[in-house]
Write a structure and sequence with these properties.
alpha/beta, Rossmann fold, seven-stranded parallel sheet, 8 helices, 7 strands, globular, NAD(P)-bd_dom_sf, Sc_DH/Rdtase_CS
Length: about 260
Amino acid sequence: MNLFDLKGKTAVVIGGSSTLGGVMSEALAAYGAKVALTGRKADNAEPIRERIAAAGGQARCYGVEATSRSDLEKLLAEVEAWTGGADILLNCPGVNSATPFFDITEEEWDRIIDVNAKSVMIACQVFGKHMVERGQGGSIINLSSASSVTPLSRVFSYSASKAAVNNMTQFLAREFAPAGVRVNAIVPGFFPAVQNRAILSEERIASIMGHTPMKRFGEPAELQGAVVYLASERASGFVTGSLLRVDGGFGAMTI
């Protein structure tokens, strides 16, 4: 028995053009899933599609605004036409900001909450309803953050948005369980990417290392096992509502 066989499954990755989303998409494809990659422009995800194709996998790129219900509904229709439906949803769009609290504008707050939290809610409505009504189960995986549990300094809006992702994950796990649709979140520690490089000063890096028992940043590929595990019904069929840390021990650190 192959616990991680995803052949015959279709994975939709919102934010598949991102650093972490792309690497996780490659893992889903490597284990047999057909992958629908999204970015604000379809071309943004093309390098990921090319890597998946070169490795023998199947993927298509779609231009999608993650906060647009109409875009996500159109995406679902296109995925249904391609493969018959979606079995796996990976939500990993994300934006960040290091604006001091008293300087945060309503516009900045709205932008971060919209991209990081509202997009997850809408995607779970559109694709979650599809999975529930389809009656074949499914797996929804949300990308959270170490800052979702105990908020990190300097990233107020981001922390609040990711705390909302955790709450939605556990709420929907309970709601969707009778239909066999599992909802979990991956809680990464520090994985340097385009999204967060701007806030990684030398001082902040030193502080992160001091609070990470493994004394290093994560490599994007180290998220691949977690996403394949949560996507596979054979491997994690009784796992729902979980917040799976992949953080080098950051969440276990005290003094």
